């Protein structure tokens, strides 16, 4: 039985490999590390098993809009701690990770020892934030409202929402997901109700509140 089971979600194979090596060295050979290269893959892993000890989540993952991946995870799997990992190290980015429910934030520029220490702390039930970025700004009310709405979506609804925001029509989304157009219409209605929006444009704007830097 593995001492810890950790999901590494990052779309860069080299960084996943480096993280794999760092965690094996830091936590011992009995740690079980599983990798995912996209939000869809991550959801698949979580669908198979929901009692992971930790998810290490890259901020800019395929299939997510900035922090929407974090918000989705916190909404669907609140029992699993999530630590964000990113090359974006601005104070505003760290603040948003904290506000949206992450248990920590590891800059990709961190030395090996820092990554190991951060992961150990979170596995022990603590949190870890970059020491130089403790005093950071808070998140806007709009972003918090967007976060609450997104957290209530199911993974399938979130997938439909991202496709809506990419400009796909209901029939195109139905084809992509191999379901009927009526099913997609029902999903869109439910999504709009949960997000408190009435149009596709409003839904897209709400998702933009999840981008990593406000106003970028």
From TrEMBL:
<dbReference type="Pfam" id="PF00072">
    <property type="entry name" value="Response_reg"/>
</dbReference>
<protein>
    <submittedName>
        <fullName>Response regulator transcription factor</fullName>
    </submittedName>
</protein>
<keyword id="KW-0597">Phosphoprotein</keyword>
<dbReference type="Pfam" id="PF00196">
    <property type="entry name" value="GerE"/>
</dbReference>
<dbReference type="InterPro" id="IPR000792">
    <property type="entry name" value="Tscrpt_reg_LuxR_C"/>
</dbReference>
<dbReference type="InterPro" id="IPR011006">
    <property type="entry name" value="CheY-like_superfamily"/>
</dbReference>
<dbReference type="InterPro" id="IPR001789">
    <property type="entry name" value="Sig_transdc_resp-reg_receiver"/>
</dbReference>
<dbReference type="InterPro" id="IPR051015">
    <property type="entry name" value="EvgA-like"/>
</dbReference>
<feature type="domain" description="Response regulatory">
    <location>
        <begin position="5"/>
        <end position="123"/>
    </location>
</feature>
<feature type="domain" description="HTH luxR-type">
    <location>
        <begin position="146"/>
        <end position="211"/>
    </location>
</feature>
<dbReference type="InterPro" id="IPR058245">
    <property type="entry name" value="NreC/VraR/RcsB-like_REC"/>
</dbReference>
<feature type="modified residue" description="4-aspartylphosphate">
    <location>
        <position position="58"/>
    </location>
</feature>
